[in-house]
Specification:
The strands form 2 sheets. Strands 1-2-5-4-3 form a 5-stranded mixed β-sheet. By secondary structure, it is an alpha+beta fold. The protein has 8 helices and 7 strands; from the N terminus they run H-E-H-E-H-E-E-E-H-E-E-H-H-H-H. It has a single domain, classed as Beta Polymerase, domain 2 (2-Layer Sandwich).
C-alpha cells in the first residue's frame, strides 16, 4: 500500500474474509491456512494500515483449492509459482478487497518466523470472523516481520498494542532470535515493551 491509498477497515476485512472462507469451506472444509500480514494484526485489534488479506497455505494443493473456490470472483493474479519469492500464489478480488493465498517454500529450523517454517502453524490465535473461527498468526511473529521490513507505520501500532495488552515474552524472544534485527530496532522493542534481550 502506498502513501495516500485508503486503508481497509475491520469490517472490510471481516466481510471479505468471511465470504472467501465460506466459498472455500463449500469446496473443501479441511483446507488448512493461516491469516498472516497486516490483516492478521487488524483482526487482533491493532489499528494499522491494511491493504489486503494474505492467507498462508502449507501446500500448493491448498492454493489450487482456494482458486477453485473463488473462481466466481475476479482473478487478480492466477495461481502460479513466483520463483524469486519461493511462493505459489493466487489473488482474487472479493467484493473490492484483494484476498490472496500462497505457500512460502523456504526451509527454516526456527518456529519464530511469521510465514516460514513451523512458526505460523504452531503460534496462532483463533478469531471469530463472521461464521468462521479463523487461525491468525500471533502478533509477536508479525511484529518482527515489520521490524525487519522497517515499516514504522506498522510496527509502531503493534508495539503500542502489545505494550497495553501484553505479549508472550518467550515467543517474542524466539521471533527476535530467528532473524537478526538492527540494533536500533532492538532498542525500540526494549523501550516499548520493557523487553530485555538475552
Amino acid at each position: 500500500m502506498g502513501d495516500g491509498e485508503p486503508s481497509l477497515q475491520l469490517a472490510d476485512v471481516t466481510t471479505a474474509l468471511n465470504t472467501a472462507l465460506t466459498a472455500l469451506k463449500a469446496v473443501d472444509p479441511s483446507t488448512e491456512y493461516r491469516v498472516v500480514g497486516t490483516s492478521a494484526a487488524l483482526l487482533q485489534g491493532v489499528h494499522l494500515p491494511v491493504g489486503d488479506i494474505d492467507l498462508l497455505a502449507a501446500q500448493r494443493e491448498n492454493v489450487d483449492t482456494f482458486a477453485t473456490a473463488l473462481s466466481s470472483f475476479p482473478c487478480l493474479y492466477p495461481a502460479s509459482l513466483l520463483p524469486k519469492a519461493s511462493q505459489y500464489f493466487v489473488n482474487y478480488d472479493v467484493d473490492g478487497v484483494a484476498v490472496s493465498m500462497s505457500t512460502v517454500e523456504k526451509q527454516a529450523d526456527s518456529d519464530g518466523m511469521e510465514c516460514v517454517g513451523h512458526g505460523p502453524w504452531r503460534h496462532y490465535v483463533l478469531v471469530t470472523c463472521g461464521s468462521h473461527r479463523v487461525p491468525v498468526v500471533r502478533l509477536e511473529l508479525r511484529l518482527v516481520t515489520e521490524l525487519l521490513r522497517d515499516r514504522p507505520d506498522r510496527y509502531e501500532p503493534l508495539l503500542g498494542h502489545m505494550s497495553v495488552h501484553g505479549y508472550d515474552a518467550q515467543l517474542l524472544e524466539q521471533a527476535m532470535n530467528a532473524r537478526p534485527l538492527p540494533t536500533e530496532r532492538q532498542r525500540l522493542v526494549q523501550e516499548h515493551l520493557d523487553y530485555s534481550f538475552p
